[in-house]
Amino acid sequence: MEEKNFIEIETQIITTHSSSLESFKKLRTNLMYTDNLKVISLTSSIPDEGKTVIAFNLAYAFAQMGKKVCLVDCDLRRSSLKEYLMLTKHHDGVSELLTNQGKDGLNSTNIDNLYIMLAGKTPPNPSEILSSSHFTDMIESLREQFDYVIIDTPPVAAGSDATVVSRAVDGTVFVLRNEFTSKKVAKRAIGELTNNGGRVVGVVLSRVKASSQDYGRYGYYGYYGYY
C-alpha cells in the first residue's frame, strides 16, 4: 500500500479530550504489556457507547510515544470516524479495498506516526466482505507495516461484523458506557465474542461522571480492567 493520501486532523479533536490523556496512557500501557497484542479491535454492545472516540485516542496515544500506528474504520454499516474527524472529502477505504474498487485506502495524517484507513462507501454485505480472505490479507499487510493496528468495529448488536473481526485480530477491547448499558446486555455481547473465537483482553468504562473523577468537566474515558 502506498502512503500517498493525506488527512488533515483538526487540533480540537485532540484538545477536546486532553483531560482524558492519563486514562488513555493507562489503557495504552495495559495493552502494551498484554502478550501477543499488536492488532486490536474495539467494539461495544450497542451504539453510542464511545468506542470510536476511544479507538482514535488510543491510536493517538500510541503514536505520541513514537509507535507507527494505523487506525482502521471497519464499521462499514454506520461509520462515525469520518464525522468525528470532521472530514468532508470522500476517501476510498476498507470497502473499496476489499472489493477491488479502490487501489489504496491508507492515508497519512498531520499527526506524526498516525495513519488512517476509513470505512469507505457502505456496502450491501459488510459481514461477507469482512469474512473474506481479502480482509485477512489486509490485516496481515498492515501488521507488517505498523507497530500497532487499531480497528473500530460496529457494536455487537448490529450484526456479526464485530465477531468476525475479533477472530482475525490479536485481541478485542470492549467499551461499556457508564449508566447506559445493562450488565445483562454487556455480558451477552462479550459472551458472543468469546464463544465465537474472539479474545476479549479488557473493558473500558466510558462517560464516567465528572463528579466522581478529577479528570475535567466532561468526565473521562477510563480503563476498567480485564474481563
List its traits.
single chain, 227 residues, alpha/beta, Rossmann fold, 9-stranded mixed β-sheet, 9 helices, disordered C terminus
List the helices and strands and how they pair.
Elements: E1 5-7, H1 11-15, H2 21-32, E2 39-44, H3 51-64, E3 69-73, H4 81-84, H5 94-98, E4 106-109, E5 114-117, H6 126-130, H7 133-145, E6 148-152, H8 161-168, E7 171-177, H9 183-195, E8 200-208, E9 220-225
Parallel strand pairs: 1-4, 2-6, 2-7, 3-5, 3-6, 7-8
Antiparallel strand pairs: 4-5, 8-9
Question: Would you give an account of this structure?
Answer:
This protein is α/β, with parallel strands linked by helices and 227 residues long. It has a single domain (5-225), classed as 3-Layer(aba) Sandwich (Rossmann fold). It contains 9 helices and 9 strands. Strands 1-4-5-3-6-2-7-8-9 form a 9-stranded mixed beta sheet, sandwiched between helices. Strand 7, helix 9 (183-195) and strand 8 (200-208) form a beta-alpha-beta unit. Helix 2 packs across helix 3. The longest helix is centred in the N-terminal third of the chain and has 14 residues, at 51-64. The model is unreliable at 212-227 (pLDDT under 50).
Question: Short summary of the structure?
Answer:
This protein is α/β, with parallel strands linked by helices and about 230 residues long. It has nine helices and nine strands.
